[in-house]
């Protein structure tokens, strides 16, 4: 009798375990749109609920390995629905709005996440994602870690360097002006130099000379899109700037610095350290 009872208990345990596995599989029904939102999901330890991402979700590796539904500003309902998604965690920067409305009409739960460019917005993002994934305790733990780094960022000394942020993902490179994530990140890193224009703009040689940057900020992807470091210094006008004459540039992790996700505070601290080193002639 005891042996039979043991077998019954073992079978029940086995079915319980298998039931848990089936539940985990069933819970994998979410597509995440926005690299910042994807990183928050991963930091909360909830990446197992994801079945897809968009092209900006490239970190960490468990996110990058997921199938992509395309670029967040050119979403198609068909791509999302093809993955069997029942929920969409989507950055408020995503487009087109008509696609999101179509997905909602198809029965997909669309959870919109703020897309701000400051630390308050970052903490709102974390809380929104944590609430959607029933991970509020993990969300508060992540916010506490962010707050520690935020305090360090807010205590950074101002810098005098004139920095130029170049965005180059193919085609003609653009430089960052006011009112974008590059502007926000550079100001948080201690820089208070901003060009006259807003957004991102293609500028000619004369404009680059007039901007007179002392150091160029560019991502590895941007540098490769230009054709490498030598191609950077061959850009019209750049050779006549202080940065060009001294060949001074800092390679940044664009997603970490500009995404205003969990890695952004550390990326800002690293940028400040690199800029301070440049100012010191390092």
From TrEMBL:
The cross-references to Pfam families, in alphabetical order and at most eight, read: Peripla_BP_2 (PF01497)
Q: Does the keyword Transmembrane apply?
A: no
Q: Which domain of life is it from?
A: Bacteria
Question: Is the Cell membrane keyword given for this protein?
Answer: no
Every Fe/B12 periplasmic-binding domain range? 29-280
Instruction: Supply the source organism for this entry.
Output: Halotalea alkalilenta
Q: Which UniProt keywords apply?
A: Signal
Coiled-coil regions, chain positions:
none
What's this protein's name?
Fe/B12 periplasmic-binding domain-containing protein
Gene3D superfamilies registered for this protein in UniProt:
Nitrogenase molybdenum iron protein domain
Signal peptide limits: 1-26
């Amino acid at each position: 009798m005891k042996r039979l009872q043991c077998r019954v208990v073992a079978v029940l345990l086995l079915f319980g375990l298998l039931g848990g596995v089936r539940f985990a599989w069933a819970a994998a029904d979410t597509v995440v749109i926005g690299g910042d939102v994807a990183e928050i999901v991963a930091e909360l330890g909830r990446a197992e609920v994801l079945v897809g991402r968009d092209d900006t979700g490239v970190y960490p590796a468990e996110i990058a390995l997921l199938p992509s539904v395309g670029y967040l500003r050119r979403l198609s309902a068909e791509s999302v629905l093809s993955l069997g998604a029942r929920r969409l965690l989507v950055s408020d920067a995503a487009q087109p709005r008509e696609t999101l409305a179509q997905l909602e009409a198809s029965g997909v739960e669309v959870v919109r996440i703020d897309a701000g460019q400051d630390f308050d917005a970052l903490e709102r993002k974390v809380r929104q994602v944590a609430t959607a994934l029933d991970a509020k305790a993990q969300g508060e733990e992540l916010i506490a870690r962010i707050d520690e780094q935020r305090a360090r960022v807010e205590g950074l000394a101002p810098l005098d360097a004139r920095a130029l942020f170049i965005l180059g993902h193919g085609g003609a490179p653009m430089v960052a002006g006011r009112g974008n994530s590059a502007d926000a990140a550079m100001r948080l890193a201690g820089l208070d130099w901003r060009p006259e224009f807003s957004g991102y703009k293609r500028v000619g040689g004369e404009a680059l000379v007039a901007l007179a940057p002392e150091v160029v900020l560019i991502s590895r992807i941007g540098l490769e899109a230009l054709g490498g470091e030598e191609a950077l210094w061959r850009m019209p006008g750049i050779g006549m700037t202080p940065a060009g004459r001294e060949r001074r540039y800092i390679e940044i992790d664009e997603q970490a610095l500009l995404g205003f996700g969990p890695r952004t505070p550390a990326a800002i601290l690293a940028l400040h350290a690199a800029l301070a080193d440049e100012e010191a002639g390092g």
